[in-house]
Specification:
Strand content: 5-15%
Strand order of the largest sheet: 1-2
Number of helices: 5
Largest sheet: 2 strands, antiparallel
Radius of gyration: 25 Å
Distance between the termini: 73 Å
Shape: elongated
Number of strands: 4
CATH class of the largest domain: Mainly Alpha
C-alpha cells in the first residue's frame, strides 16, 4: 500500500509516517515508480509506535524496543536491556514529576505570601492587579 493508504488506515498523517521512516522505525519498500510501498504489517507497526510514544518513549528508545513488540497493545517480549530502558525512562519521568511538584509548591507559597501582604497593605481588597492604583 502507498503512504496515503497507510495514513488513512492508521489515522497517522503522512508526514509523521515519513518521520518514522527517517527515524528507522518504518521500512517501506520502493516500487518501480519510486513510491514508498508498505506491507499490511506496517499498520500494526504504526499502532505500536503510537502507543509507545504515548508512554513517553523517544523514537530512539522505540527503535530499540520495536523488535521486542508484539500485538497492538503492544506486548513487549523480554529482550536484552528492555527493562533497563523502560526503568530508565520511568526514573526520568519520576525526577521530572518531583521537580514539577517542588515548583508547584513554591508557586503556591509565593501566592499565599503575596495574598497575605495584599490583605495587610490593602485592607478591604481581595486582590490587587499589577499596575492598579488605590484611591
Amino acid at each position: 500500500m502507498l503512504i496515503g493508504e497507510l495514513s488513512r488506515r492508521s489515522g497517522v498523517h503522512a508526514h509523521q509516517l515519513r518521520y518514522y521512516e527517517a527515524q528507522g522505525l518504518l521500512e517501506p519498500g520502493r516500487g518501480a515508480s519510486g513510491y514508498r510501498e508498505y506491507t499490511a504489517d506496517a499498520i500494526l507497526t504504526v499502532t505500536q509506535i503510537r502507543k509507545l510514544l504515548e508512554a513517553g518513549l523517544s523514537t530512539q528508545e522505540i527503535g530499540f524496543m520495536l523488535p521486542c513488540a508484539t500485538g497492538a497493545a503492544p506486548d513487549l517480549e523480554p529482550c536484552p536491556e528492555l527493562l533497563d530502558t523502560l526503568r530508565a525512562r520511568l526514573h526520568g519521568l519520576d525526577e521530572r514529576i518531583d521537580t514539577l511538584t517542588r515548583s508547584r509548591q513554591a508557586l503556591h507559597d509565593y501566592i499565599e505570601a503575596t495574598e497575605r501582604r495584599v490583605s495587610r497593605h490593602y485592607p478591604g481588597c481581595d486582590s490587587v492587579t499589577p499596575g492598579s492604583t488605590s484611591g
